[in-house]
Description:
Keywords: CBS domain, Membrane, Repeat, Signal, Transmembrane, Transmembrane helix. By secondary structure, the chain is of the alpha+beta class. It is built from 21 helices and 30 strands. The strands form eight sheets. Strands 2, 3, 5, 6, 9, 10 and 11 form a seven-stranded mixed sheet that branches. A four-stranded antiparallel sheet has the order 1-4-8-7, covered by helices on one side. Strands 12-20-19-18 form a four-stranded mixed sheet. Helix 9 (about 335-345) packs antiparallel against helix 10 (about 355-365). It is rod-shaped.
Amino acid sequence: MVKSILLLIIFQCLHCSGRQPGRERRQAGGTSLREGSKSPQLSGFRVESDDCRELKEGNEEYRGRKERIAEMVANVDVPIRIFGSDLTNGTSIKFTSQQGQRGQDCAAFDTSRTFPVEVEYLNGSDGVAISGFAVVNLELLHDEDAVYYFCISDPEVGHWIHQGTSGFLKLRTVDKYFMPLWAMIVLIILLQCLSGLFSGLNLGLLSLDPTELQIVASVGGFKEKIYAKHIIPLRKKGNFLLCSLVISNALANSLLTIMLDTISSGMYAVIFSTIGIVLFGEIVPQALCNRFGLAIGSATRYITYVVMAVTAAVSFPLSKLLDFLLGREIGTVYDRERLVELIRVTMDHNLLESDEVNIISGTLSLKRKKVGNIMTPLDDVFMLPYDAVLDFDTLSEITREGYTRMPVYETNRANIVGLLNIKDLALLDPDDGMAVKTLCKYYSYELVFVTEETTLDVMLEDFKKGHSHMAFIQQYHSDGEHDPTYKTIGVVTLEDIIEEMIQAEIYDESDKNAQDKKKPLRKDNLSVFSSRPLYSSLINPQLQHAAFQFLSTSVEPFRAGMISEQILHRLIHHGEVARLIRRKPTDVDPAYIFQAGRPADYFVLILEGRVEVKVGFEGLIFESGPFTYFGVSALAIPPDELALLSRVPFPALPSPRPSQPRINLERTSTSGVFVPDFTVIAHTDVLFLRIKRSHYVAGIRATILEQQKKAGITTTVEDTFGQEMDRCAKEDHSLGGDFAPAIATVSLMKMSNSMANSTVDLPLLRVPNSDPSYNPTTISQPRSPHGSSNDLEMLPLVNANKDPSGGV
């Protein structure tokens, strides 16, 4: 209220002084009123709307005029405040575009419609009226210099009084839009499209990696190649393109906001500009360009060139500054690990099979893998001794193993001195018995030694040179006191590296098919290629003769009175009798030949190697060597059974039944079984004769047959011994033998396990001395580990289903 009074006083003073000072919001002082007149008089007005403006010097509309005229937007309700005297609640105002004298009647002029005035009083309705408020809506005057003048109603006389042509009482109307509405709408749509285009290209083009574009231009689809070739020149100017698009996008958004604010106002302008810029200028274009950036960028490349040219004055220097500060942009570079991971992550979309992905990843990982990680340990490598002889058995063993290359060692397995290839043996005659050392010296293959830290890519390059496809891995040893040495610890082959590359195992004809576990590994019986038994040469002739002399003179069951020399020769020479147990340094489980408390039906004569013998409950341990024998009692034949064997014709030997344990199968009575009270363990590689009771019985029957033929009792000429030995061999193969000849370590555990679920009533041996304390639940055992003594001690009867040691 105070402010209004002050404004009224200022207007009156300025009017009286004849000055025309300007204000931001137009407030004009009018001419002096007639003295004593009660008619309402206006001294000035003020446009209350933000759409008003004043014509100032320098404005486009100034046009050289000295006066300053307030303006308002045409055809819009605009609030104005009028100042004057004798204003009442009945006061109204009109506007005319015709000039007139102050106090002149406006009836002769063309006027606008009437606008009521709401008068404000000082100190209530009984006070002095200081101003009035009215909302006016005027049409646009087509003449640029035409203005509106005020006409105010006189309630006393009912006339409209012209307020004169004072500059303080003039009002100009202007159009709301600076161009036609349809042109503004078209411009808004164009700006919206440009804003979306610049925003989308900013993401779509700059997200395309230069390296990826070059790849697409080389190996992409037909259209992709064209698109990539169009975009590469633009993408090479990375920072220049970035600055041009960002500046153009900001300029388009700013103009769009101004245009929206022009055709609307207030909250509507904010809402429409936000929706237009965010939704149609950012989200939708970036989503489209992110998916189809290559095609959109290629199609709009000429627009991009124009934008870069238009904004070059600003964007080009700025891009050079960014190049200087950030450096030249380079494409994405993948190392091996990232490239492998990229292939694996995109495997579902890159049309690659899992095997192809494995091959790619395996090939890329060769450089970080070492031969020490994929080598075959030396203990698992099939090797030949340097002094070995390539006879039929050795060649048969090589064939069964199925390896192409075989290292040759001397003295110990770590001392590799040569290499044999399977093709070198193609023209050998096993009967020639050529030495391995002879072939090694003849072919003299180059040996490749590498350290365990050698990477697979280096090893592959070495294999590609053709020196060898097998390398020996050496490990560095240094104890600080002696000179450092290298120790051979394993081998690696070209096949191992290829398996690492394809990430899968390679199987050949001699390997077991891992996908068909039920398919047996093919290890054909090579005896068909030889006219002699397969394992007959396991014991050389000198050793066979020594074994014959020892058995026939030192072991009672094999003397001439029990078995003939011819049959004993055949028995020793038979392939099912010679056995070999091999021990590796890494073997943990003991290789049992005999085990205390477990029944055995065979006799053993050690020919080569060392065994460890543990005797009795006291656990006395000693080592024994060649020509030590065990289990003579297993060959003992009672007189009644011996008499049965002497009958003519011979009784048929019973065939083993699946439920019958593999002991005493050749007996026709329930006489004694051999249960040792000692344990024999192979301490080194052991070569021995294992004569089973069935073998011995077959030899006795053949001896009796010979004696009867000489006496003329029978004329049978069939080879009974050969038939019985062959039948025993077939039974052993069908039920599983205790020892595999000339191959890896085996033990008597198989026989024990086959008996674990069977209940066997073990018969008692004959006790020479009649002891009153004799208990029928005891069993006699030989005290001597050789089994040749008649001294017997009494042991508790062992139930085959429950052994204190956990076995049978």
